[in-house]
């Protein structure tokens, strides 16, 4: 099964939501991505942590069969993030960020990883994203994330990275900000002109949209998926990265890039993210089973069908 | 083809959006509903206007085969609404409301209309909604809308109406406010305990969700549909009412209430609403064709499928 390579952060998070508070729990974009993707394929992780990184947290990754040769353990402290969510749970308020050892992160891709075909560049400096790409030999599918900080301060560098990326995975606000265009469809069209073959827009409780140029290159092919409706959302931290992990893990494992595969990958990303937000940190993903994933996938299929369906309750 | 009965407002709107301004154009919940529903079935309209109501606006309704026996023309001025939309186009800011003849509206259902099986109670006083229901003889499907004003000030009366309603069609914020519950799934569960067999939640650019109790009455059956992605939205006025019109018109015309029919009705509602917002007032609906409706319906089917699909562009 073709593995997926992820480069991003491994962190300790302190998070406050209306449902509780946790201190210094395992987090980071690459961590959420890795555990999410591990349900579908082998994951090779490139990141760095400090000497304070806990043995038990390494074991979380090991138990999910994540290859840790690329995880550098260096002198200093692990990246810390402190954030808070209000009642609507849509926007995190960052209270404190301590980059620590992540400030000097310069990813070195182990030789064994350089042939990997599926690559996810989590939300890091676009220059570092390109440094990763300079080290891989036969990429087939490169996806990346970014955020307002890079869009505002490193726009030209980000454009350079986008030229080399196949799939950009960002949220609603980032899409509009990147394209400087309030209409999402027009924003998507502009971004697809910059390089990516597909744009995946994460919209939290409103689901996800994917835009691709159609076969002729004129029109847009659009896919819309609802979020999995949940009665209790505990902590949205990591939703976007676990979505990306489910998405890329499925595509790498399957080894296909046709439209059907990519759409199903969005559904699997949606499913994994829906589980992730049910508990703090990686608590829910740690205990997630294939049966549960399959059940929500089928529920989403049922939830979006309006032709040739068996009748349910009716009115 | 079984007709649909609608009771609501016929108004003159003055609207300002980032794309332009119109003064005293045809509007009102029952107007948008009627023209939208007219693509699927015969519509019988109950409303009142003043002597200032223009002949050309009556003709818009007549050309869409709307039965106007229930449209009272009384001494005084037609209902006026003045509103404004900002750049995100999601929330209307009401600048002025003049109820005029609508202030004393007490709907009298013509005898010919009293056998109609499909009824839509647009956003009016819940007491008046019940007065309508007292005059109909064999309702099969009753749907209604409401708004924050009635939820805040006439809550008990609204609950009385909901006991007699089969489908409640409201927006996201109204759902949460009505149930006093920020989580949408839990809010839906609560509202379905009050009487309606189905709750349709309109979410603007994020599409629609429908909640029904499942056959066993324990769980929820949920349907999620994206909005039709548009590159230019001109004026959101009437989106909700044209959605309801497409939805109820399709169900009345089809004469079915099974789950598949209701889900398809949501798609047709979505389609009609997507056309409506492309121009001011009813300008777009006036010129809408069955071919265009069918095309967007099929596009939405294509846009939401992720199994057994023909391959498009891929990556």
Provide a concise account of the structure shown.
2 copies of one chain form a homodimer. Chain A has 315 residues and is an alpha/beta fold.
Overview of this protein structure:
Two copies of one chain form a homodimer. The model of chain A has no long low-confidence stretch (mean pLDDT 95). Chain A has eleven helices and 14 strands. With 315 residues, chain A is an alpha/beta fold. In chain A, strands 1, 4, 5, 6, 9, 10, 11, 12, 13 and 14 form a ten-stranded mixed beta sheet that branches. Chain A starts with a strand and ends in an 11-residue tail after the last helix. Chain A has helices at residues 29-37, 55-63, 126-133, 148-153, 155-162, 172-179, 184-193, 239-254, 259-276, 283-286, 290-304; strands at residues 4-7, 11-17, 20-27, 43-50, 66-67, 71-74, 79-85, 92-98, 118-121, 141-144, 167-171, 198-202, 208-213, 220-225. Chain A has a single domain (4-304), classed as UDP-N-acetylmuramoyl-L-alanine:D-glutamate ligase (3-Layer(aba) Sandwich). The longest helix of chain A is centred in the last third of the chain and has 18 residues, at 259-276. In chain A, strand 12 and strand 13 (208-213) form a beta hairpin. Chain A is globular, with a radius of gyration of 19 Å. Chains A and B meet through helix 7, strand 13, strand 14, helix 9 and helix 11 of A and helix 7, strand 13, strand 14, helix 9 and helix 11 of B.
């Amino acid at each position: 099964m073709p593995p997926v390579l992820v480069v991003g952060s491994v962190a300790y998070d302190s998070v406050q939501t209306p449902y509780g508070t946790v201190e210094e729990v395992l987090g980071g974009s690459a961590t959420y991505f890795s555990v999410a993707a591990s349900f579908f394929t082998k994951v090779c992780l490139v990141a760095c942590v400090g000497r304070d990184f806990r043995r038990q947290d390494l074991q979380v990754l090991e138990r999910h069969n994540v290859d840790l040769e690329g995880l550098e353990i260096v002198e200093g402290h692990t990246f810390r993030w402190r954030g808070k969510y209000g009642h609507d749970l849509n926007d995190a308020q960052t209270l404190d960020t301590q980059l620590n050892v992540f400030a000097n992160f310069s990813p070195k891709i182990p030789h064994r990883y350089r042939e990997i075909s599926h690559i996810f560049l989590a939300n890091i400096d676009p220059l570092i994203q390109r440094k990763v790409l300079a080290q891989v030999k036969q990429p087939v599918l490169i996806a990346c994330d970014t955020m307002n900080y890079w869009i505002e301060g490193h726009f030209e560098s980000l454009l350079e990275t986008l030229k080399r990326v196949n799939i950009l995975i960002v949220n609603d606000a980032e899409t509009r900000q990147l394209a400087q265009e309030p209409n999402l469809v027009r924003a998507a069209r502009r971004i697809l002109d910059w390089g990516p073959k597909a744009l995946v827009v994460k919209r939290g409780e409103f689901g996800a949209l994917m835009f691709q140029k159609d076969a002729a290159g004129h029109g847009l092919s659009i896919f819309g998926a609802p979020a999995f409706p949940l009665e209790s959302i505990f902590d949205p931290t990591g939703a976007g990265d676990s979505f990306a992990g489910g998405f890329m893990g499925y595509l790498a494992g399957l080894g296909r890039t046709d439209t059907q595969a990519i759409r199903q990958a969005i559904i699997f990303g949606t499913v994994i993210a829906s589980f992730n937000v049910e508990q703090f940190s990686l608590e829910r993903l740690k205990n997630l089973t294939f049966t549960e994933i399959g059940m929500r996938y089928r529920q989403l299929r049922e939830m979006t069908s309006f032709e040739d369906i068996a009748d349910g309750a009716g009115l």
